[in-house]
Amino acid sequence: MSDNRQPLNPDAMRLDPPSHGLASYPPVEKWDDWVEYDTAQWPRKVEKHCQIIPTICFNCEAACGLLGFVEKDTNRIRRFEGNPEHPGSRGRNCAKGPATLNQVTDPERIRYPLKRTGKRGEGKWERASWDEVLDDIAGCVRKALQEERRNEIMYHVGRPGHELLYHQRILHSWGIDGHNSHTNVCSAGARAGYAFWSGIDRPSPDHANARFILLLSSHLETGHYFNPHAQRIIEAKEAGTKICVIDTRLSNTASKADYWMSTWPGSEAAILLAMCNVLLQEDLFDRDFVRHWVNWEEFLREEHGNKPQTFQSFISILKEIYASFTPEFAAKEASIEPGVIVEVAHEIAKAGSAFSSHVWRNTAAGNLGGWQVARALQFLVVLVGAVGTVGGTAPNAANKYIPAPPHMPPPSKIWNELLIPKEFPLAFFEMSFLLPHFLKEGRGKLAMYFTRVYNPVWTNPDGMSWIEMLSDESKVERHACLTPTWSETAWFADYVLPMGHASERHDLMSQETQAARWIGFRQPILRVALEKQGKKFATTYEAHEAAGVGQVWEEDEFWIELSWRVDPDGSLGIRKYFESPYEPGKKMAVDDYYRWIFENSVPGLPAAAAKQGLTALEYMRKYGAFLIEDNVYKVHEAALKAADIADASVDPQTKIVSRNGAVLGVEVDGKACVGFPTPSRKLEFFSKTIKDWKWPEYATPGYIKSHVHPDNIDLNAGERLLLPTFRLPTLIHTRSGNAKWLYEISNRNPLWLNSKDAESFDVKTGDLLKVHTEIGYFIDKVWTTEGIKPGVVACSHHLGRWRLAEDCGGERWSTALVDLKQVEPGKWLMRQIHGIKPFKSDDPDSERIFWEDGGVHQNLTFPVQPDYISGQHCWHQKVRVTKPGPEDKYGDVFVDTNISHEVYKRWMSKTRPAPGPNDLRRPLWLPRSYKPAPEAYYFTR
Ligand code: SF4
């Protein structure tokens, strides 16, 4: 790929232009032997020959393409750049993509399997062999399966990946309901709001073609899907599209927006409903779209049976329902000006079907009832008919492709109450962050606990309760931590198992980055490079050892090998799912697996490969990505196939099209369409599910007052709202702790304080404040700024990493050394011994570290606060802010886990437990990761 841009350096303008302009990227035909000069040898011109091998970034879910430059003479990775052949990222990355190099070359990385030798948490480790580890873990798993203790096996995932194809194979073939995820501390609130509308839990905004963009977050620079969305938002902005950002904090995105609404956290649903009200009262909505695609008939039948069952009657009722959401009411809730609400509503109406929007974590993850923010935002999208349109917002399933893998096991017939307990029948993901409290209450124990790139001790609220749980061998009998880096959680494992970074593993990715469908292929580039040189390896860890990385493995092969050892003779019925699709009885190799998928279930790929004389697998190894379909719009309108509807019937009342009890779609204006995967097959303004499951007051989009509503906070008594959910654009939770370039940019997380609040607390930038939560306190430095609303204090969750030993257990680029004591039962005090310091290593940069402050770990001091419906942890905290006492020090953290358990019980008491209709644990239609078989959904079966 090349273009004709002019050089930036004025001196270069005097040079003869290159014959084809300046190249932005090495052209694909040169990837096998790319020649460049070694910059370290300048001014001598010393050539370096590289193989360029594509892979996929592992630092966030966006799955951008990377190109790894592998030196041919040393087999070292020279650098990472963007992959121009990747349809989502188009050759561009955020800072975290190229910093993959730091992660791969980190002198402190874990290179071999480790097992603990002392007590759990004591920090004594010795090197183990993969054989030893696998045999021990396989023995634990087999025994639990044979003794029908299936719910004692749990696989807890932090960084997503592999789920398209692999996780389900393991969980279902083992016959367990054991997938636990981090999602309820992350995006479950927004997901629930979207799924109650469309059955699909994520939005896919077509930002590039939008005429107006509304972001409830800080997406452009610091939010979810940072780079692929950001580059398209910028394109739209360059073309004249206006942007509104609703975010309490002045994010990078807000600073570039046309409208910034700095709202009181939790008031956002009121604002969005006020905008809906403007559209309704002024008749600025898309009547045809609403009439065709919203389940208004069901709403009238269920809620207003005595009124005319007409569309006009529905609109009149809508206007009545939302009339109380005046701009003045919403503005008062949010503490902003009402005029801007009306102005933005008019902009949205003007954009019509080219209105794109997004909410992900932010307010939806901060507040009680946050899921209603997503529901209210989607209401706006529905009203202007911008669902799946050019420049609109599609359900993400339209813009994602999940290939079918070879022979998959049937779903397991078991329900694990440690994941979705009866109190949370509508929880949008597993209630993972409550696990320590469940075990404390005696709801179960774990025989084998896997954590996968997951650091709950640090990431989750109430981390001290996690430490108590993980330290107790009667509650967690065996803990294996699969991780590329040290973490606070790994310290409390029995095995620390080194898994590869982005360039050290296979995986398939597909994300809703734009109105298209693509797949991306993550691959272990050193293994690929060595194999291109003619070397052969049975496993990726052997290739890594040959390349000098150590025995760093990849999960695909780990799980295949482990499953064979769990079921060595095939008698448990597991092994057959891990045999080659080409040679039954032979252990599956990763090449077999991906070859089968690329040849059999990616439309267009085999033909595209054949055109170039390649196999489908060779094509993916060469390019790293494949565009399956571009410009995907209005998927819900797709007509059902004539063959499917030949003997189908249409329900005269609901217009649902079905055959033999299986729902196929819905008839709209006489046309049988696919529709949406909801019970009505329409967009559910009214959710009968929510009504039937005991929350009738929230069956339509509404406004739930947050637990941190201004009514609950007494500013005069020193109380404030703590906003702890925002990201820094250059970091990614705990995975970037070993990326020196990223820590050089961002290395502390002061407490943002408006200058008015600074005045009332009599502090200035750099002074200390003590922030008291319900279960403890932390002490941080102040940063005074106008970028935060008065009454709200804010602290980024990306910093405050710590380790318990000087030279082990945490990357020294990013962790403070701390002393952690239990001063009384349940009362924990953490104090920093020293901050970040230079250290000696193979990397001379480690002696050049100039930053000393690694930030403060605030999440430890947060009690669990599960939203009663979505199950999302409500991150925002009501805090009391004081000056520190004479004994207090920067970075101090104190927590009382006895109180945290009481707070847990208080929130649990507000839930409305299952069973729901028909003695169900959960609605059968509602999405769930790796759904068990239907019979597992019933309490009595
Ligand atoms: S947005 Fe950044 S961190 Fe996320 S995948 Fe792309 S390059 Fe990696």
Low-confidence stretches: none
Q: What count of helical segments does DSSP give?
A: 29
Proportion of residues in helical segments: 25-40%
Estimated share of beta-strand residues: 15-25%
Distance between the termini: 60 Å
State Rg.
27 Å
Label the overall shape: globular
Structure description:
With 941 residues, the protein is α/β, with parallel strands linked by helices. The protein is built from 29 helices and 34 strands. The strands form 7 sheets. Strands 25, 26, 27, 28, 29, 30, 31, 32, 33 and 34 form a 10-stranded mixed beta sheet that branches. The chain has a 7-stranded mixed beta sheet with strand order 6-5-17-16-15-7-8, covered by helices on one side. A hairpin with a 5-residue loop joins strand 21 and strand 22 (656-659). Helix 2 (130-146) crosses helix 21 (555-566). The radius of gyration is 27 Å and the shape is globular. The protein starts with 33 loop residues before the first strand and ends in a 33-residue tail after the last helix. The structure holds iron/sulfur cluster (SF4). Residues 57, 59-60, 62-64, 89, 93-94, 96-97, 226-227 line the site of iron/sulfur cluster. The site of iron/sulfur cluster has 13 residues, from helix 6.
